[in-house]
Design a protein that fits this description.
about 290 residues, mainly alpha, MetI-like fold
């Protein structure tokens, strides 16, 4: 009995130590967000002069003034939010559909040069964005797509994101091909098999791909800064930068913090709503049955 109790104590001590370490790491990771939340209710001087986390006086007007501070009041954050959703939602939809079709082709069909094209597809994952940004800029300029959302929407229609294709392929490899064969016997076409048989099983992988693409496109500043020039077409990431540049005096960081918090709220809501599918998709997309 003493040995069992000592083992239980050791297990309990180990579990407590692990939880304590995880709690400390979690607090360190989430502290910038906590600081931003409380800083959005302070005035600018207090943000830089006070070490206290909670504001001395709660300034709720930071959100009102910050919302109107886009471009000297001409363009507000209402426009930035609408523009962001106008660009991000179609990009996510086109990406999921096109990458699913491409992954379905690689995973379930034999075609010429398949063994050569798949390594080429995977190798493009190693290409940094800075290498292809100049050719992309020249191409979109010649097509007359600058200062529009076409540089984001049109490529998403043609499965230009190899990471998502590879992830869905790995998930499809865990789905038995006997399901496809049974559906073919029942008279289903290849497209019907994908839509009615495989797509419901691919739900975790598709949710993961959609969530990743939503996060990346929502937070993307580099590409949007290059391809979008008109303030009326700015997204949230560009609008936050515009709020800093448009300031005639010192930057009102309290308002910037308030708008930064508003800009990440949809991301938090999306992640927590789709967390189940996201974790399941990441956990199973690397398995091969």
């Amino acid at each position: 009995m003493k040995e069992v109790r000592s083992k239980m104590k050791n297990v309990l001590k180990t579990a407590l130590f692990r939880h304590l370490v995880l709690i400390i790491i979690g607090i360190a990771l989430i502290y910038p967000v906590i600081f931003m939340i409380f800083a959005s209710f302070k005035d600018t001087n207090e943000i830089f002069t006070s070490t206290k986390l909670f504001p001395a006086v709660w300034h709720l007007e930071n959100y009102v003034h910050g919302w109107k501070s886009g471009a000297t009041g001409v363009v507000t954050y209402t426009n930035f939010f609408l523009n962001t959703f106008k660009m991000v939602l179609p990009v996510v939809a086109f990406t999921v559909i096109s990458c699913t079709l491409a992954a379905y082709g690689f995973a379930r069909f034999d075609f010429p040069f398949k063994k050569m094209l798949f390594p080429v597809l995977v190798s493009t994952l190693m290409l940094p964005n800075t290498v292809i940004i100049i050719p992309r800029f020249m191409l979109f300029k010649n097509l007359g797509w600058l200062d529009s959302y076409n540089p984001f929407l049109v490529p998403a229609m043609f499965a230009v994101y190899p990471f998502f294709i590879f992830m869905i392929i790995q998930f499809l490899r865990g789905v038995p091909t006997s399901l496809d064969e049974s559906a073919k016997i029942d008279g289903c076409s290849s497209l019907q098999i994908l839509v009615h048989i495989l797509a419901p099983l691919l739900k975790p992988a598709l949710f993961s791909a959609g969530l990743f693409q939503f996060l990346w496109t929502w937070n993307d500043f580099y590409n949007q800064f290059i391809f979008i020039n008109s303030p009326k077409k700015f997204t949230l990431s560009l609008g936050l930068r515009l709020s800093i540049d448009a300031s005639t005096e010192a930057v009102k960081w309290n308002e910037v913090m308030a708008m930064s918090l508003c800009s990440i709220i949809p991301l938090f809501l999306l992640f927590f709503c789709a967390q189940k599918y996201f974790v399941e998709g990441i956990a199973t997309s690397g398995l091969k049955g």
